From TrEMBL:
Its cofactor is Mg(2+). Pfam families: ADK. Its main location: cytoplasm. The chain crosses the membrane at residues 63-81. Consists of three domains, a large central CORE domain and two small peripheral domains, NMPbind and LID, which undergo movements during catalysis. The LID domain closes over the site of phosphoryl transfer upon ATP binding. Assembling and dissambling the active center during each catalytic cycle provides an effective means to prevent ATP hydrolysis. One of its GO terms (molecular function) is nucleobase-containing compound kinase activity. Binds 1 Mg(2+) ion per monomer. Residues 91-104 have a biased composition (Polar residues). It is found in: Cytoplasm; Nucleus. Residues 254-264 are annotated as: LID. Coiled coil: none annotated. This is Uridylate kinase.
Length: 321
């Protein structure tokens, strides 16, 4: 019976296939038995299935591209986030650092100098606290090497052909902190130069030890402190000259009459005060927790402050410091 039924169906299929467009589909199969007509209609639907899918199937196919796009975007975003968790900062990328992996761990930076080679004393205080005056006295009386971060930056901005000159000038004028990479590199180069044979000979002739640095006005931010200690040398101690803001402002305004410094004006001075409180005081707190900070009242006359400074250094570095 199955084979006999198939023959008319095949014939009906061929006839349907030869007609460009059947007219009145029901009429073409009306002469067939009821069971054949049903089977034939099923066959015809199969033959034209590419043009007659149910609505639900079409909708599914229309939605799938959007689902695929969303899935690809989500996977890409998650991959990017996971990758950036292990990526170095933009600064590290500029210096050519690589992402740490199991087979390629991130190298730990080795400081240029060890504490056995040099003694570093950070000298901190607000603008006008008298840091430079006290450092000059320590150089004269005790043979320290004085490096002023501010002086180095100002010299660099005036140096012909300096690639950082304009950048430094803009930062100083606006009372902002110059990027740490610039300042740290200038300090490191100055330390190397000071420790050269000529500097050692001068220090030896003066009867004092070499490699003792007073770094004035630095670090002014925590990231500067971290970077300097990791790449240049850890600090032995911190001299912090504490002075009221109104006293410092009065000193700076008086100094501005003869200093010729672009930042010795009322607007820049106030910006520098705000910057110091917001960014430099956390540095003092950081070293204070390590027991490295010596606070000196910088309000009295410079000679009185110097006597106090010497007393603190004797306690920390020894009587012959």
């Amino acid at each position: 019976m199955a084979c006999r039924n198939c023959a008319p169906l095949r014939l009906a299929g061929r006839l349907a296939g030869t007609n460009a467009r059947p007219v009145g589909g029901a009429a073409t199969t009306s002469a067939l038995p009821q069971s054949w007509r049903s089977t034939c209609r099923q066959n015809q639907r199969r033959m034209y299935s590419f043009g007659g899918e149910p609505t639900g199937v079409k909708d599914k196919f229309k939605i799938w591209p959007f689902v695929a796009v969303i899935a690809i975007g989500t996977v890409g975003y998650v991959a990017l986030v996971n990758r950036r968790k292990g990526m170095p900062s933009s600064e590290g990328a500029q210096t050519g650092s690589q992402m740490p992996t199991a087979g390629n761990p991130q190298p730990i930076p080795t400081p240029t100098f060890s504490p056995s080679e040099v003694t570093v004393v950070f000298v901190l205080g607000g603008p006008g606290a008298g840091k430079g005056t006290q450092c000059s006295n320590l150089v004269e009386k005790h043979g320290f090497i004085h490096l002023s971060a501010g002086d180095l930056l100002r010299a660099e901005q005036e140096r012909p052909g300096s690639e950082f000159g304009d950048l430094i000038r803009d930062y100083i004028k606006n009372g902002l902190i110059v990027p740490k990479e610039v300042t740290i590199k200038l300090l490191e180069n100055a330390m190397k130069e000071a420790l050269s044979s000529q500097a050692k000979a001068k220090a030896k002739a003066a009867g004092s030890a070499t490699g003792r640095f007073l770094i004035d006005g630095f670090p002014r931010k925590l990231d500067q402190a971290y970077s300097f200690e990791n790449t240049v040398c850890p600090a032995k101690m911190v001299l912090f000259y504490d002075c009221p803001e109104n006293v410092m402002e009065e000193r700076l305004m008086e100094r501005g009459k003869t200093s010729g410094r672009a930042d010795d004006n009322a607007e820049s001075i106030r910006k520098r005060f705000r910057t110091f409180v917001e960014t430099s005081m956390p540095v003092v707190d950081y070293y204070e927790k390590q027991g490295k900070v010596v606070k000196v009242d910088a309000t009295p006359a410079p000679e009185v402050v110097f006597v106090k400074t010497q007393g603190h250094l004797k306690e920390r570095l020894g009587k012959d410091f």
